[in-house]
Amino acid sequence: MCVRQSARFKTVSYNWLGASLRAVTLTGKIGGTNVVEASPVVTEAELHQRLARLPRVALGTLPTPLEPLPRLSELLGVRMFIKRDDLTGLALGGNKVRHLEFTLAMAMEEGCDVIINGAAVQSNYCRQTAAACAKLGLKCALVLRRDRRIDQFKTTEPQGNLLLDYLFGADVRFVDADADMDTEKERLAEEYRAKGHKPFVIKHPDLGGGFGYLICLLELVEQCRQLGIEPTHLIHSSSTPTQVGFVVGAKALGLNWRILGISPHHRPDAPDRIAELSNLVAERLGLPVRVTPDEIGYSLAYVGEGYGIPTDEGMEALVLMARTEGILLDPVYTAKAFAAIVDMARKGKLTKEHTVIFVHTGGVPALFAYQPTVLKALGWSV
Q: What is the value of pTM for the model shown?
């Protein structure tokens, strides 16, 4: 049966500046927190070889560029680079393309012909799932959650990602904000089974993101080598799977990079989930790596009122990136993650001594759905 089972997790608190991945001994400080001297357990070539043994289907335009941000670096007083995973190619790009290369390969290997996914109405994951299914000749069915609290910040639907879901031919179903997503996806799967289909339900634990972002980390290592830079921080928007690949890769390769995920929602159990998935990914690849929740750098400080609800700081950061570097962010994920970098720079937690990579995980179509919020950030009366 093509279903991924969910799990339960406890709630704990974490150092929001991020902990480096422990391996040997404490050796110094970066940004006021301990740095750990990690010992590699695998070479880059060996990690590539292990990943190459996994089922994978080509969906993205990879590797994505690693670019300097010269004007922002000067403005914020921090040496900054951006990993352009908004340019992964498929359906206006985004991080989930890397996830889907492994997840959909597994679904096809199992003989599934319908892919079921679900999230918020303006889900980037669902938009990229619908596009990937269209590319691969698979049926896509989506369960999308409506939330009236979020709708007040958006224009009339369908717009943004939802418009593209329809364009890619997805079977779209809507549920209320308090609906249990796993239950609703399984209900839709049963509907398709009754019609003679073999559905694949994307749900936790899904290891595709971990594998995909191990590939991304290997790209970064090579790109940093070519540019002659040694990052101190890797900062990105994190709702779990993307950070898994960075965590496992950094620990396996012995990188002293501070991996910091900025949460787009109030989910204090996320470090537990990241650690659990990290260990599953390491086990699947035969890596002698073990990750604990206290090793996960994760911040809830920039969520604001909740998922999908823009913050003033995030919208300020979005406009700053657009007008300083000509790069588009989105109000839900990347704007809040970049707002964290701006805030840390202004508070002196990031300085000219640091080299920061901001991983742009995509989400640009949501800009159009959040048109009233964007206009307000630009000073328009709406």
A: 0.90
